[in-house]
Amino acid sequence: QVQLQQSGPGLVKPSETLSLTCSVSDGSIRNYYWSWIRQSPGKGLEWIGYIYHSGTSSYNPSLKSRVTMSVDTSKNQFSLRLSSVTAADTAMYYCARQVVVPATPSYNWFDPWGQGTLVTVSS
Amino acid sequence: DIQMTQSPPSLSASVGDRVTITCRASQSISSSLNWYQQKPGKAPKLLMYGASSLQSGVPSRFSGSGSGTDFTLTITSLQPEDFATYYCQQSYTTPPAFGPGTKVEIK
After folding, report:
1. What does the mean pLDDT of chain A come to?
2. B82: helix, coil or strand?
């Protein structure tokens, strides 16, 4: 049973870069898509993007200019960087495995999820 | 982008009740619809995928139906551990989008 463990600071200053890491255990990071999702009272659940083990990525257009995701297959980890943060980026951030079934139409879902990291943007 | 709506935003029900939650997409998404359950302080948990397929380990009192733009999640005989917030999510197009949630509370 794959488990995801998140790490990273819970407080980030405005204009700085948010950095989070998700460690995958009891399973390989290979052959899956790995996503970041955030949740705030104002915007609900919002998909930030995914990265594949090969390094291929896709980001939400609403955040694309500020997001960078990376993967380290040797450590079974993937990471999120969100630059130039503001108070609007304050949220609970989750990592999740995005299971993709090659089919028409597209079937994919998020399972499992990490435990979440509450990130507050404040000086 | 596809927008998702859910109704009702919240509901009160008793243990043993049958509960139905509705999710609507702003355009057809075929059956590319997933349901999640979230309890306070916890991450969302996958319940159903592909509109009607039950995730392994999820009790059979949960069922899903629908295709196109209109979907439902039904809980037959509500149990104490089912009080939570439920979210639908479309996976038809990128970016995937979630509904605003339906909170199921104890009457």
Report:
1. 95
2. helix
Strand B102-106 relative to strand B10-13, pairing: parallel
Q: What is the pLDDT of residue A43?
A: 86
Query: Does the distance separating the beta carbons of B94 and A58 come in below 8 Å?
Result: yes
Of A26, A29, A23, A22, nearest in space to A1 by CA: A26
User: Which two tokens mark A22?
Assistant: 């998700």
CA distances, B47 to each of A41, A60, A97, B44 (Å): 22, 24, 15, 9
Q: How far A110 CA lies from chain B's nearest CA (Å)?
A: 7
Average pLDDT rounded to a whole number, residues A96-115: 91
The closest alpha carbon to A101, from A90, A91, A113, A111, belongs to A111
